[in-house]
């Protein structure tokens, strides 16, 4: 792992009188899978949206590859955006398009491919996300939850991003599908050299996939480091989260009973 590919400095986000983030700092290291965790409403999604330029912070700075997305001229901003893939919480696929058309869309719109070329590449992304070719002709509403996540992942990978952002990718999946998604993520990271930022409540995903974890709370990053480092932090929420029954079960599933 080399330097920080994402630097968040002094981030402040407010909605009316509600302060969600205040002087929040975070680094994401190239090649890592970083898990973002924290209680409901701690601002994980708002942080993700701030990083990808969907939400303009009230103060502070987000630098991606040393550049501030929000101050770049449009063409440069678009170029930087193409280096990021995003899987939103509900998949956010267009319901009136087939899965293949959903994946091909960014290739037509942002990479300037014709429909035939985009379709051929979309087929490859579909396979990369572990979906059978037949799924390409189906509409999102006819897919299982796990397949929707994979279709959304295929679309997020359409433009060969270097950073992948995932907002609760395993939410709503049964444990077997969630574990399969975790394995797919690790395979893709290793094969494609991706950097991954992952918002999750899923302790199994954290233990199975993440190199580091950042815990949001009290408007900041309360702790960041390896799972072992973060789990050892003296903080009430972290203690309950990592050392409660679910945390113990997730840790044992990966490490056995050695602790
Ligand atoms: N567009 C908005 N307008 C007003 N308030 C917002 C908006 N977006 C987020 N918030 C508020 O900001 C806070 C943080 O929201 P966010 O969705 O980032 O939390 P989260 O940590 O992702 O929560 P969860 O784990 O429940 O998904 C919440 O109190 C939310 O109501």
From TrEMBL:
GO terms for molecular function: ATP binding; ATP hydrolysis activity. It holds the Pfam family ABC_tran. It comes from the Bacteria. Keywords: ATP-binding, Nucleotide-binding, Transport. The keyword Ligase does not apply. Signal peptide: none annotated. SMART domains: AAA (SM00382). Residues 6-243 form the ABC transporter domain. This is ABC transporter ATP-binding protein. It comes from Oceanimonas doudoroffii. The lineage of its organism: Bacteria, Pseudomonadati, Pseudomonadota, Gammaproteobacteria, Aeromonadales.
């Amino acid at each position: 792992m080399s330097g920080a590919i994402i630097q968040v400095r002094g981030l402040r986000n407010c909605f009316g009188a509600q302060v969600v983030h205040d002087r929040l700092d975070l680094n994401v290291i190239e090649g890592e899978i970083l898990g973002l965790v924290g209680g409901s409403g701690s601002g994980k999604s708002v942080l993700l949206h701030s990083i990808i330029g969907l939400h303009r912070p009230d103060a502070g700075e987000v630098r991606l590859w040393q550049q501030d997305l929000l101050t770049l001229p449009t063409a440069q901003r678009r170029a930087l955006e193409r280096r990021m893939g995003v899987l939103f919480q509900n998949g956010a696929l267009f319901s009136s398009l087939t899965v293949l058309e959903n994946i091909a869309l960014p290739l037509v719109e942002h990479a300037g491919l014709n429909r035939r070329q985009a379709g051929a590449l979309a087929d490859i992304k579909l396979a990369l996300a572990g979906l059978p070719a037949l799924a390409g002709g189906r509409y999102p509403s006819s897919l299982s939850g796990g397949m929707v996540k994979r279709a959304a992942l295929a679309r997020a990978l359409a433009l060969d991003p270097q950073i992948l952002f995932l907002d609760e990718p395993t939410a709503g999946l049964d444990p077997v599908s969630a574990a399969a998604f975790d394995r797919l993520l690790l395979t893709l990271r290793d094969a494609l050299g991706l950097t991954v930022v992952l918002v999750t409540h899923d302790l199994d995903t954290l233990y199975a996939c993440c190199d580091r974890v950042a815990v949001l709370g009290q408007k900041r990053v309360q702790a960041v480091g390896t799972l072992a480092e973060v789990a050892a932090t003296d903080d009430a929420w972290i203690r309950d989260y990592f050392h409660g029954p679910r945390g113990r079960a997730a840790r044992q599933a990966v490490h056995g009973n050695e602790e």
